[in-house]
Amino acid sequence: MSDSMDRPFPMFHDMDMPGLGGDPSEFRANRGAPLPEGQPVGSRDDAIAALKTVYDPEIPVDIWELGLIYEIDIDAATGGVNIEMTLTAPGCPVAGEMPGMVADALVAVPGFGEIEVTLTFDPPWTAELMSDEARVALDWF
Hints:
four-stranded mixed beta sheet, alpha+beta, 4 strands
């Protein structure tokens, strides 16, 4: 499919970036505080469970199943979590809010301390990043 009108979600290279107001790499959110000494650190599974509670408001699938999470890095000593994520489209109306939504979900998990979420568009999101569950939910095979 070479024409962006044939795809349910536009690809990044098909669009300009209105509404972002600048370099998308500047979109970050920070939450939380260092864990108290001796508190057990949360797991990757804990992080994924929290990420599955965050939905793109325009798509009825969580951000994990959509393939919007590129990296989860958990510091085993401090419980700090760094997330690198993207969006299905750079012009998404919640582009500036999504990192904060993700950080809020993670900071609520016991065992996680300082949270940093960074929004990136490199590499661009493609539909191939979606899970089978997301494809079924969207009736997109």
